[in-house]
């Protein structure tokens, strides 16, 4: 989306459409566009974008600019965005705000030490469920500079719908709706859950990473089982690892290697079987 009066006017009149466009752009480009808007006009765009994408845009900006865009947002929305940003960037943004908002936002950002929310990973690949398979592939390709292990799908309220696999996208027709290939029923972790309790969950026998949601089922991040080794008590971690066989650990390692290989596939253009030309 270019920086000109016409595109800025379109964004003001059609924030939902503009938000979807911004989600498909590199974070620094989308952030630069948001920075050109008055904060009151950027507010509906940030409110409509999926949280991880909006947070990455804000993190690409200076702390002063990011703070000016965050300030008009409702406290709960601003807190969700700041939680999804890298900690140092979020703290720098908070420091630029006036006295009262940081106190409210700091409370919203502060999850108890030892909770899942205190250790979530905020960088995610998130797409709205309204996309087609082809549109999703373009977004995955645009995000190929980062290593993503899941492609999460959310509804218009940022509530988690499910995930799509790289294999599912590659097998499906590009015009198919994304909803046709969504895998539903993925286990989730409450953002306020205690890490020692989470470490004991048998769900880790089948999953290396799990999404983290708030009390409205809105996606706020994910957590990797490997991270529990730094947070969970040693006794709990040993008990949990004892439930996982050596064969399962080998399989998980191979699965991570496969995910990396598939990510490389997305970084290359697809070739049309009919024309032999690259498909953009």
Task: Write a brief caption for the model.
It is built from 15 helices and eight strands.
Please describe the topology of this protein:
Elements: H1 5-13, H2 15-23, H3 27-35, H4 39-48, H5 51-59, H6 63-70, H7 75-84, H8 87-96, H9 100-109, E1 125-128, H10 133-142, E2 151-154, E3 160-164, H11 166-171, E4 189-190, H12 195-199, E5 209-213, E6 219-224, H13 228-231, H14 234-242, H15 246-266, E7 270-271, E8 278-279
Parallel strand pairs: 1-2, 4-5
Antiparallel strand pairs: 2-3, 5-6, 7-8
Structure explained in plain terms:
The chain is mainly alpha-helical and 280 residues long. Helices cover 50% and strands 11% of the residues. The chain has helices at residues 5-13, 15-23, 27-35, 39-48, 51-59, 63-70, 75-84, 87-96, 100-109, 133-142, 166-171, 195-199, 228-231, 234-242, 246-266; strands at 125-128, 151-154, 160-164, 189-190, 209-213, 219-224, 270-271, 278-279. A 3-stranded mixed β-sheet has the order 1-2-3. The two termini are 17 Å apart. 34% of the residues are buried. Mean pLDDT is 77; it is low at 240-247.
């Amino acid at each position: 989306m270019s920086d000109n009066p016409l595109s800025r006017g379109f964004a003001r009149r059609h924030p939902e459409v503009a938000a979807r466009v911004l989600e498909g752009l590199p974070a620094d480009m989308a952030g630069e566009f948001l920075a050109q808007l008055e904060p009151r006009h950027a507010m509906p765009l940030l409110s409509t974008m999926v949280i991880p994408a909006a947070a990455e845009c804000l993190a690409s900006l200076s702390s002063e600019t990011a703070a000016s865009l965050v300030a008009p947002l409702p406290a709960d929305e601003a807190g969700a965005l700041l939680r999804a940003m890298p900690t140092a960037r979020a703290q720098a943004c908070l420091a630029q705000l006036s006295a009262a908002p940081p106190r409210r936002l700091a409370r919203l950002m502060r999850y108890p030490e030892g909770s899942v929310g205190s250790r979530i990973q905020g960088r995610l690949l998130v797409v709205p469920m309204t996309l087609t398979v082809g549109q999703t592939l373009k977004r995955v390709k645009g995000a190929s500079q980062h290593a993503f292990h899941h492609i999460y799908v959310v509804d218009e309220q940022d509530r988690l719908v499910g995930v799509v696999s790289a294999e599912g996208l590659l097998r499906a027709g590009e015009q198919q709706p994304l909803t046709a290939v969504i895998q539903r029923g993925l286990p989730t972790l409450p953002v306020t859950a205690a890490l020692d309790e989470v470490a004991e969950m048998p769900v880790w026998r089948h999953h290396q990473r799990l999404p983290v949601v708030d009390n409205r089922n809105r996606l706020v991040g994910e957590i990797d089982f490997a991270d529990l080794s730094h947070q969970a008590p040693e006794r709990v971690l040993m008990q949990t690892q004892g439930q996982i066989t050596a064969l399962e650990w080998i399989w998980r390692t191979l699965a991570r290697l496969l995910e990396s290989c598939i990510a490389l596939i997305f970084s290359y253009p697809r070739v049309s079987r009919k024309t032999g030309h690259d498909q953009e």
